[in-house]
Amino acid sequence: MKLLSIAIPCYNSEEYMCKCVDSLLPGGEDVEIIIVDDGSTKDNTARIADEYAARYPSIVKAVHQENGGHGAAVNTGLDNATGLYFKVVDSDDWLKREAYLQVLDTLRDFVGGSETLDMLVCNFVYEKEGEKRKKVMHYRHILPVDKMFTWEDCHHFIKGHYILMHSVIFRTRLLKECGIRLPEHTFYVDNLYVFEPLPFVRNIYYLDVNLYRYYIGRADQSVNEEVMISRIDQQIMVNKIMVDYLVEKKPELIKNKRLYQYMRNYLEIITTVSSVLLIRADTEESLEKKKELWNYIKEKDKSLYFWLRGGIMGSTMNLPGRGGRRFSVDAYKICQKIFKFN
């Protein structure tokens, strides 16, 4: 059995996927690299995937499927994973070699141990096009370093500082047993990937290394603001799924105060992003969708609604009139500069 399975969702990724795959090969026989060709049609993604599988038959798998979107590709990667642990690396991103080898050493140490590791967290780096200084997202002041811990041992997560797909490695069986299935033909499902498994996570380990290099700069990237506005209905759908999940799990989650606080705070961030994008769209239809989203939350759980609405972000996103909406956008832009997203 492999130590780590790594899924690479690929869709017309010819220009950059080799850099991604090559960064994973140093893991050798401990690693299973699953290249998921998600119905690519415009380039040689499928051929490149097959060439890697032929060249490294004991390490690389090439899986081809009809186009189903990022979520479907992650699902397929998980379905084909045989490793003890599972990670997703997008085809335009890559891993840093030294940190990668440290991660493998750390995972290896836990195999056969007395305690089961459910989730490993590492740092990630924003590789933003045109910027010389790279923003590192670390967790040193939030998570205990180099030791096994539980949610109760975590400190408070500051705004905009959360565990993302780039920073997490899950135990494969945990993902399969929790039944996670990401929606197909939908963007922004990475938020569900780092949300729904959390109630099943007991033991966590934080390795303070800059593992994942997250590239930002392509005009067609899903995190580009104009692209996000054009796909706002998908963002709203993911937002509502997260609301449903948190409300459904609430009776169980409130027994673990720190975990519930974390998941509620993460939902706050996602709802803020949905709201400000709808404000930025600046149409009657988009403002009506924003109103409908908040009403949806209110109908699902009034206490959750009032908590979200009463916080600084919720209140800022719901200021009245055009002047209020302009202030909301200005506040969002400040957060963009601070946290380097979008």
Keywords summarizing the entry:
342 residues, 13 helices, globular, alpha/beta, Spore Coat Polysaccharide Biosynthesis Protein SpsA, Chain A, 17% strand, ten-stranded mixed sheet, 2 domains
Give your account of this protein's structure.
The longest helix is centred in the C-terminal third of the chain and has 25 residues, at 257-281. Strands 1, 2, 3, 4, 5, 6, 7, 8, 9 and 10 form a ten-stranded mixed beta sheet that branches. The chain folds into two domains: 4-216, Alpha-Beta Complex (Spore Coat Polysaccharide Biosynthesis Protein SpsA, Chain A); 225-339. The model has no long low-confidence stretch (mean pLDDT 91). The protein has 13 helices and ten strands. The protein has helices at residues 17-24, 45-55, 69-79, 97-110, 172-178, 190-193, 225-230, 232-253, 257-281, 284-300, 302-310, 312-316, 321-339, and strands at residues 4-10, 31-38, 60-65, 85-88, 94-95, 119-128, 135-137, 148-149, 168-171, 204-216.
Topology (elements, then pairings):
Layout: E1 4-10, H1 17-24, E2 31-38, H2 45-55, E3 60-65, H3 69-79, E4 85-88, E5 94-95, H4 97-110, E6 119-128, E7 135-137, E8 148-149, E9 168-171, H5 172-178, H6 190-193, E10 204-216, H7 225-230, H8 232-253, H9 257-281, H10 284-300, H11 302-310, H12 312-316, H13 321-339
Parallel strand pairs: 1-2, 1-4, 2-3, 6-10
Antiparallel strand pairs: 4-9, 5-10, 6-7, 6-9, 8-10
Helix pairs in contact: 8-9, 8-10, 9-10, 10-11
